[in-house]
Amino acid sequence: MAEVLDINSLSKRYAAIQAVNQLSVKVEQGSIYGLLGPNGSGKTTTLGMVLDVIKTTAGTYSWFGQPSSRETKRRVGALLETPNFYPYLTAQKNLEVIADIKGADKANVNRVLQLVGLESRKSSSFKGFSLGMKQRLALAATLLNDPEVLVLDEPTNGLDPEGIAEVRELILRIASEGKTIILASHLLDEVEKVCTHVAVLQRGQLKAEGPVGAILSAKDQILISAPNLPIVTEVLQRLPFIEAFKPEKDTVVLTLKDGYSSTDVNKAMFEAGIVLSQLVVRRKSLEAQFLEIIKSQS
Q1: Containing structural domain, residue 181
Q2: Are both 184 and 256 inside the same structural domain?
Q3: Which residues contact 291 (CB under 8 A, 6 or more apart)?
């Protein structure tokens, strides 16, 4: 897949504070890419730098294989803060005002209202909207120019569970239309349920990066040991039911695809001539896994 964003050794320092430190990630076209980390981990600063809102201290980035320019910016829609809407104007009138400011075609207003599920409320004033509806209207505003990429900073921040579910469903709907989405969040559940790929940040440093299923998973993990681990890893690479695995000191930690168990692992290893000296099923919550990631190498 083509890369829409390539971040290479990006850094940002504010006096004595290193907000982002040598960050390198690549975002592929069509993915929903999450920047996950606690408050102060550098997520918003990273998004600000790649959107030319914050000046970088060091490093480079490119959009669609090109340096950032007016042309590349037209292909990206961003929601770093909730836009200011006129409280007494309707949803449709507010978007028409924003379309004028952006130079977007007003014919897009009804299309984006339909996409975010607000077409039936287009004649309602903004002041009567719930927080979830206000956030959906904000997302509609970013879609007026029909961008290829959406950049969203904490899109569910401050919402109640119903509002979070609304925005989560909307993000998936927008992604299904072929758009690439980059979002920052401190919510594990949001990233695990919505994103295809994730980068875990802690104090401005990249702690882990890859497909969500390989980095974050509430699935049981299996720990195995054997006298010759290199041969074990070779066998694991050939097994179709292994979702992901990672060597850790004298063991290998792995997760399985749905419908398989530790029995299948033991059987496959025995058939390959390997007698396991240890096979342990470890049940781990998303929270425990996240804490383990951000504490590593700290």
Answers
A1: 3-213
A2: no
A3: none
